[in-house]
Amino acid sequence: MEENIVGTTERILRVILGLLFVYVALYASIGPALVWTLTILGLAFIVTAISGFCPIYKLIGKGKCGCGCKKSC
């Protein structure tokens, strides 16, 4: 099981931003490319918020430190 890298405050913000992106994609008068982009980004934010794991953070090394804890020091 992967470690939780995303903190609680950031998880809440990711859910809000994800829902906002999906809402705009569904109800705004925008082109199809932007609809798909916003939908995918919105769902990605929601999934990372629920799981607490962000693959981009894993790539850049956030959440790892020399002391062995799971927090970013």
Structure commentary:
The chain is elongated, with a radius of gyration of 15 Å. The chain has 73 residues and is mainly alpha-helical. It has three helices and no strands. The two termini are 22 Å apart. It has one domain (8-60). It has helices spanning 8-27, 32-51, 55-60. The model has no long low-confidence stretch (mean pLDDT 84).
% residues in beta strands: under 5%
Give Rg in angstroms.
15 Å
Helix tally equals: 3
Head-to-tail CA distance between termini: 22 Å
Principal-axes shape call: elongated
Total strands: the figure is: 0
Largest sheet composition? none
Calculate the mean pLDDT score and round it: 84
- Which stretches are low in confidence, meaning pLDDT under 50 for 5 or more residues running? none
**How are helices and strands ordered from N to C?**
HHH
Domain count, please report it: 1
Helix content: 55-70%
Q: Structural class from helices and strands?
A: mainly alpha
Summary keywords:
73 residues; mainly alpha; 63% helix
